[in-house]
Amino acid sequence: MVDICPESIYRNSCSHAWRSLPKVWNEVRNKIIWSVLNGETLKFWMDNWVPDTGPLWDARITSHGINKMATVREFVGEDGNWKWGVLSAWLSQLVLLHISGIAPPRADLGPDVICLNGMDNGHFSISDIYTGLTERTWRANNTYEFGKMSQRNNFRSIL
After folding, report:
1. HEC states along 106-127?
2. According to the lineage, what is the superkingdom (predicted)?
3. Looking at the 3D structure of the chain, how many domains does it have?
4. Which of 59, 72, 81, 133 could cross-link 39 (Cys pair, CB 3.0–4.6 Å)?
């Protein structure tokens, strides 16, 4: 996720708005979640793709035998289902329950999509992010797919 959503957005010479944004950037990053499609770009353990769980690295039972950089796709068997036997060795039943609510990735679905928690109408602007941060009222039930934004609201274009 670092390529799309860097850990820092600090810039030396920029507007007042840009100088203020790094102060809340970690909070914005915490609202980002992935929608699993083909599972080839998402890091199973390090990216935030399971709702209400965060990165699975923080939820693991053990680290023994884990490849931190494995993709989500690597945890799907040839039958197209999650590799539950493998996953149950590393994750709790509660986390497995969360994963069971996510369809396993499929190659024909295309690339994974980055989303933003708390947006319920499918459209958002930088102003909406600001309002969410200042009011602290992110609605966790909904996500917004970045790929559907208009060009003028493309959050990635300002990074």
Report:
1. CHHHCCCEEEEEECCCCCCCHH
2. Eukaryota
3. 1
4. 72
Handedness of CA 57, 32, 41, 95 (dihedral sign): positive
Burial (CB count <10 Å: 0-12, 13-18, 19+), residue 70? middle
Would you give the DSSP letter of residue 5? S
Instruction: Please report whether residue 1 resides in a domain.
Output: no
H helices of 23-108, in order, are 25-30, 84-87, 93-100
Residue 6: predicted pLDDT: 59
Cβ–Cβ < 8 Å for 124, 148:
no
3-state SS assignment for residue 35: strand
pLDDT of res. 127: 72
Distance, in Å, from the CA atom of 16 to the CA atom of 6, rounded to the nearest integer, reads 20
Give a yes or no: residue 138 inside a domain.
yes
Mean pLDDT by 10 residues, the chain (159 residues): 57 69 72 87 92 90 92 97 96 96 95 72 59 58 40 34
